[in-house]
Amino acid sequence: PPHKPFIRCTDDDTVTLTIVESKADFNHLSSNHPKNLKDLGHLVPKLTCTTMHEEDTFIFPIVALQVTVFPNNGLCIAITYCHVMDDRCCGHFMKSWSSICRSGGVDLTLVEKSPPCFDRKILKDPKGSLEAIFLRDYFQERSTWKDKLIGQTPKHVCDDEDFLKATIAFGRDDIESLKRYVLNHWKKNAELKAPQYLSKFVVTCAFVWVSLVKAKYRDDDEGEEMKEEYFRFAADCRDRLDYPIPETYFGNCLTRCYAVLKRKELKGEGGFVNAVKAIARAITDMKTEPLRGAENWRALFRKMFVLGSTVLVTGSPKFSVYETDFGFGRPTKVEMVHSPKCMSVAESGDKEGGLELGLVFRSGEFEYFISVIEQGFVALKS
């Protein structure tokens, strides 16, 4: 402090690539079934912070890589990155790397046609004050880092053996039935303000959000029913601002979107439709003004965890992660390792037009959640 953070690149810089051999069950780890989060954590490389200038300056590597080999079964190629880069940057990096591997380093078509853009001057401060606000919030937040980070790798949720990660796959027919239910409901009730278009992201996320709330808070008393539930997801701003930003801009170019409902509005009879409308409205607001309320992001984030509970979305079906081919064909499974508050979203690996949603549960919670999902589909079809 008070200097703002920057990306430093020198001729001596490297990216760590760790190669590990594992005796774990490859087929189990690459399935949709619940698996121990700690087992997945062994596949993930660590980003370790260092300090300099009497511990006033923090240095973070941007990315670390790990390849885990399962003899006679397969391998896992994993990436961990800090949020100086976003998911689109990660996808571009992985596809560029895989393109070089697939071609033997000869055909650099993808890299030559779409090199990463590192020019920070491309981004503009639309309100003239956001940079100062973001820097203030950043320095307030990083004042708590010293005790947590110096000389150690941050503790990760993967270290807790009580958590399981599972993937829920929705096929095209499942998603169409969700859309059909909502559209029929609006038609029957002559909804004048209903969204004209429903994406598979909106209806699938809404259905899972409602199911999570019903499963987690099934025994709430009346007072708890009035608590707020938040659903937060990110949207790429590269093609949404009033000036052009290259698709391959390397950095974090995201805005935050929020849907908020009372718990009883999600658990009640019309909970699914309420959730669809709330998420669709958040997307519409973002398209109208991508950085609306950005000056209050940190305060809202803190409020979400103090006054209510939150689901945070990571990933997107737009990144086509199953098209990342290192020369071995399509991946058997693409997995995102994250905290219990998060829900990962990707296109389906084996169901064309479908989606995969990854969720983290404590031991014993997954079976009940699946029963709520199944009951929800039965109710929609009745």
Please describe what this structure looks like:
This protein is of the alpha/beta class and 382 residues long. The protein is built from 12 helices and 12 strands. A 7-stranded mixed beta sheet has the order 2-7-12-11-10-8-9. The chain has a 3-stranded mixed beta sheet with strand order 1-5-6, with no helix packed on it. β5 (63-70) and β6 (74-81) form a beta hairpin. α7 (172-188) packs across α8 and α8 crosses α12 (366-381). The chain is globular, with a radius of gyration of 22 Å. The model has no long low-confidence stretch (mean pLDDT 88).
In the sheet with the most strands, the strands line up as: 2-7-12-11-10-8-9
Write the H/E string, N to C.
EHEHEEEEHHHHEHHEEHHHEEEH
Number of helices: 12
Query: For the residues shown, what is the average pLDDT?
Result: 88
Largest sheet: 7 strands, mixed
Structural class: alpha/beta
Portion in strands = 15-25%
Percent range of helical residues: 25-40%
Q: Rg from C-alpha positions?
A: 22 Å
Poorly predicted runs are: none
Oligomer: single chain
Strand segment count: 12
Shape: globular
Q: Determine the N-to-C terminus distance.
A: 60 Å
